[in-house]
Write a structure and sequence with these properties.
heterodimer; A: mainly alpha; 77% helix; globular; B: alpha/beta; six-stranded mixed beta sheet; four-stranded antiparallel beta sheet; 6 helices; 10 strands
Chain lengths: 231, 219
């Protein structure tokens, strides 16, 4: 099979600003970014509390969250589908087959990644860090923020990882979004559909964008780490 | 007899089956200096950490400026007047200048006043030319001096120093020793935990022997 010609056409499609293609890219990006933006503050706060607070069952919660890291996203989609379907407990919100349903699914997928990375970052930090902030007069919240700032690159690695996971996720988006053209069709579901139809040009174009996003986000993180003097 | 600046009564701290300070008591007078002496593991660091509010899991009664509080309910307001410096201090991953500003900002000191006080503290510690250097580029002695300056800039009522000259030798140790001596003379109430014979010999410091269960004053 000739790969060169479909690839050339794919880049032509991207560079000529094909509206359908760019809507798919735009939808993928805003849904993924919004899910991460909304999920990061509570997840990081929860992760910090989990790392710092002693309570019965803490270890079990961490193990459960670690297990959720490898939980099949299609099952998350299935559970969400049942919850959001017309007869489900949240059916009245009429979210199923909308971008908002995909966003909720992405938030669920991102949660354990953000929490586990934060727990790992905070537990890996020097214990004198939090104590120093407290001893210099910082209240608990300020000392927590100081700690998170000091381990920010590890937390940011979690954010990048979570973004990478959701922006390329297929199963959940397909189930709760329905892959509706012009409404819920995003990059991964479009690639799956176009490839199954034998339309490789669109698939290659969207795949190239996904790869560019993955590389771009990681390069940005590495650049920030470099500016932080941690290279 | 005047009311002590800080006192501890009925102190006990459990580490599994082991108990430190079985009902021990101490009283720290305002403007005085103290050196905690004792073998490793007898509780010098733990005592400093309890006074600093960093060891909440303990029993006993603390009192600061006549305000009493159980060990487990250390008042937040005391943290603005009592400052603890670790044996190996942690410096935030920013410039030394910003490290010194941190505690002042927590106390609501305006930016201009903060800068002036930081400038003075850096000069006091001999770190003026190192003010924009990140901590990992400082030597061990410079890091300890930066931590002492960061504590001193806050003008604490009670300053707690844990083995400030440990792991240092030569000029670095001598410079830190000079700063510790200056802090003791400058009308602070200072408690130093130390094995360093030169610190123990400082005439301005009252000796407190820490022996696991008891804390006793004496030569």
């Amino acid at each position: 099979m000739d790969l060169f010609e479909p690839t050339r056409q794919a880049f032509h499609l991207l560079l000529t600003g094909d509206p359908e293609l760019w809507f798919i890219i735009w939808l993928s990006l805003w849904v993924s970014v919004l899910a991460i933006v909304l999920m990061t503050p509570p997840s990081v706060a929860f992760g910090f509390a989990l790392a710092k607070r002693e309570f019965p069952g803490r270890r079990a919660v961490v193990v459960l969250l670690q297990a959720l890291l490898s939980f099949p996203t299609v099952v998350i989609g299935l559970v969400l589908y049942l919850l959001l379907s017309r007869r489900g407990p949240f059916g009245a919100f009429e979210l199923l087959f909308t971008p908002w349903a995909i966003m909720v699914g992405y938030m669920v997928i991102a949660l354990p990644i953000l929490v586990v990375f934060t727990v790992s970052a905070v537990q890996g930090a020097d214990p004198r860090l939090y104590e120093t902030a407290r001893s210099l007069g910082a209240r608990r919240l300020r000392a927590a923020l100081t700690t998170l700032w000091e381990v920010r690159f590890a937390v940011m690695a979690g954010i990048v990882n979570a973004f990478g996971r959701v922006v390329s996720e297929v199963g959940c988006a397909l189930l709760v979004g329905g892959n509706i053209a012009g409404l819920t069709r995003n990059m991964p579901t479009a690639i799956a559909l176009e490839t199954s139809k034998g339309a490789f040009v669109e698939g290659i174009a969207l795949g190239a964008v996904l790869v560019a996003i993955a590389i771009g986000v990681n390069v940005a993180l590495a650049w920030l780490q470099g500016r932080g003097g941690l290279e | 007899m005047s009311t002590p600046l800080f006192s501890v009564e009925g102190l006990a701290k459990h580490f599994g089956d082991r108990v430190l300070f079985d009902g021990a008591r101490i009283a720290l007078e305002s403007g005085s200096g103290y050196v905690l002496i004792g073998a490793n593991g007898t509780g010098k660091t733990t005592l400093l950490r309890i006074i600093a509010g960093l060891e909440p899991a303990g029993t006993g009664q603390l009192a600061f400026r006549s305000q009493a509080s159980p060990v487990a309910e250390y008042p937040e307001t005391w943290r603005h007047e009592i400052v603890y410096v670790h044996q190996q201090p942690y410096l935030f991953h920013t410039t030394i200048e910003k490290n010194l500003e941190y505690g002042l900002a927590r106390r609501g000191v305006p930016r201009d006043a903060r800068r002036a006080r930081v400038r003075d503290a850096l000069a006091w510690a001999g770190l003026t030319d190192r003010r924009e250097v990140p901590p990992h580029k400082l030597s061990g002695g410079e890091q300890q001096r930066a931590a002492l300056a960061r504590a001193n800039v806050l003008d604490p009522t009670l300053l707690l120093l844990d083995e400030p000259t440990a792991n240092l030798d030569g000029d670095a140790r001598r410079q830190v020793l000079e700063l510790v001596t200056a802090l003791c003379i400058e009308n602070h109430t200072v408690v130093v935990a130390s094995h360093d014979p030169e610190i123990i010999r400082l005439a301005i410091l009252n000796r407190l022997h820490v022996s696991g269960r008891r804390i006793e004053a004496g030569e």
